[in-house]
């Protein structure tokens, strides 16, 4: 009733009565012009997701990501996060770049594997800019109160997107779409416009367990449930301390993130290359050798990762991750020399991982 009353009293910038369906059609058109792959609209009632979120937090699956628990149920209550919100507009932006073959890169122990989403410019900046432009374009047509989000606040983006027809939640917990797989970013516009909502789509995972079987560390502990403490993306990006020794061999040559569950998913044969030039690989990160990257000084790291999502882990964790990968690499003189050169690094975190890597190769510390 309140939404109907709000719609009855609304008007466009030109004074014409509010027509939600017509406006949504224009939003889809504007979104396509901005490069978005799809648009979906959901209401703010996510109460059905709250028990699952609570159980996940109580199990400690969020690891050291304390902010996940700190925000509590606000994550599942958009109208509490942004008072006045009636609808959440979810948008999809493809990111899979025209890069070297991911499987071949993973199979070459001398090369570094960087998750494909992180090879180019930081998606937060690209996506947020597009979302802001779209929200402003909507406001020019029909004034509205809004706020845009790109991984920047407690938002259950996959839950919202699975409710508004953008796809369904796969067993790896990522969003899947029959025509686009899962290689895309999600962003949201919270708005007080009473737009018509989209219908959810049926899930199409069936009995497939490819993603679960492919996880190198067994982080997908059950269908639709990930223990972040075992996830390589968490270990190489979110974790600030030492990587648990028992999991280090399973990291292989993955130095930033992991794509294995997505690479194994049959639906990603329909994934499309991104048209966004900002997501193209920078500094040869899609084919770079571990020894080469391990030699980057802090200044070089800062310069070459500027504007990249990799920048936020800092040089210390960059070296930590690569030291593990070098410990897993085929033994070679240049690998051992690279590790020996960092054996007395000022950081205890780096030194410990270098020592572990040298021990894996049966090599002594320098000196």
User: Which regions contain 5 or more consecutive residues with pLDDT less than 50?
Assistant: none
Q: How much strand? A: 5-15%
Q: How many distinct folded domains?
A: 2
Enumerate the strands of the largest sheet in spatial order, edge to edge or round the barrel. Answer: 1-2-7-4
What's the overall average pLDDT, rounded? Answer: 93
Relative helix content: 25-40%
Compressed to H and E, one letter per element, the order equals HHEHHHEHEHEHEEEHEEHHEHHHHHH
Number of DSSP strand runs? 10
Task: Report the principal-axis shape.
Answer: elongated
Largest sheet features: 4 strands, antiparallel
Question: What structural class do you assign from the helix and strand content?
Answer: alpha+beta
Distance between the termini: 77 Å
Q: State the helix count.
A: 17
Radius of gyration: 22 Å
Pfam families: Fer4_16, QueG_DUF1730
EC number: 1.17.99.6
Binding site for [4Fe-4S] cluster 2: 215, 231, 258, 261
GO molecular function: 4 iron, 4 sulfur cluster binding; cobalamin binding; epoxyqueuosine reductase activity; metal ion binding
Q: Brief description of this entry?
A:
The chain has helices at 2-8, 20-33, 50-58, 66-70, 78-81, 102-107, 123-141, 157-163, 210-214, 232-238, 248-251, 260-263, 290-294, 298-304, 314-328, 333-341, 348-360, and strands at 38-42, 87-94, 113-114, 146-149, 168-169, 175-176, 184-191, 220-222, 225-226, 254-256. It is an alpha+beta fold and 367 residues long. Helix 2 packs antiparallel against helix 7 (123-141) and helix 15 runs parallel beside helix 17.
What does this structure look like?
This protein has 367 residues and is an alpha+beta fold. It folds into two domains: 190 residues, no CATH class; 114 residues, no CATH class. The chain is built from 17 helices and ten strands. The strands form four sheets. The chain has a four-stranded antiparallel β-sheet with strand order 1-2-7-4, sandwiched between helices. A two-stranded parallel ribbon has the order 3-10. It has a two-stranded antiparallel ribbon with strand order 5-6. The protein is elongated and about 75 Å long. The relative contact order is 0.14.
């Amino acid at each position: 009733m309140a939404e109907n009353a709000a719609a009855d009293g609304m008007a466009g910038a030109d004074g014409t009565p509010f027509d939600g369906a017509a406006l949504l059609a224009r939003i889809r058109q504007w979104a396509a012009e901005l490069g978005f792959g799809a648009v979906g609209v959901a209401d703010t009632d996510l109460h059905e997701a709250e028990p699952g979120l609570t159980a996940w937090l109580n199990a400690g699956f969020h690891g050291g990501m304390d902010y996940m628990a700190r925000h509590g149920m606000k994550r599942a209550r958009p109208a509490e996060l942004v008072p006045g919100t009636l609808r959440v507009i979810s948008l999809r932006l493809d990111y899979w770049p025209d890069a070297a073959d991911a499987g071949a890169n993973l199979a070459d122990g001398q090369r570094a594997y960087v998750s494909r989403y992180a090879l180019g410019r930081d998606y937060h900046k690209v996506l947020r800019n597009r979302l802001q432009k779209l929200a402003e374009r909507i406001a020019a047509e029909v004034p509205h109160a809004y706020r845009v989000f790109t991984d920047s606040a407690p938002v259950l983006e996959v839950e919202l997107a699975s409710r508004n027809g953008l796809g369904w939640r796969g067993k790896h917990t990522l969003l899947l779409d029959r025509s686009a797989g899962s290689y895309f970013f999600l962003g949201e516009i919270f708005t007080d416009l009473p737009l018509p909502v989209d219908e959810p789509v049926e899930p199409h995972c069936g009995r497939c367990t490819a993603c679960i079987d492919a996880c190198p560390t067994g982080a997908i502990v059950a269908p639709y449930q990930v223990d972040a403490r075992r996830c390589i993306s968490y270990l190489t990006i979110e974790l600030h301390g030492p990587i648990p020794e028992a999991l280090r061999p399973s990291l292989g040559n993955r130095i930033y993130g992991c794509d294995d569950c997505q690479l194994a998913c049959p639906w990603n044969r329909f994934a499309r290359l991104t048209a966004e030039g900002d997501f193209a690989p920078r500094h040869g990160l899609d084919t770079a050798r571990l020894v080469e990257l391990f030699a980057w000084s802090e200044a070089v790291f800062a310069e070459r990762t500027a504007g990249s999502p990799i920048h936020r882990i800092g040089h210390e964790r960059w070296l930590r991750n690569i030291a593990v990968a070098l410990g897993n690499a085929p033994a070679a003189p240049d690998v051992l020399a690279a590790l020996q050169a960092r054996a007395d690094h000022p950081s205890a975190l780096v030194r410990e991982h270098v020592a572990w890597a040298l021990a894996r190769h049966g090599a002594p510390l320098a000196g």
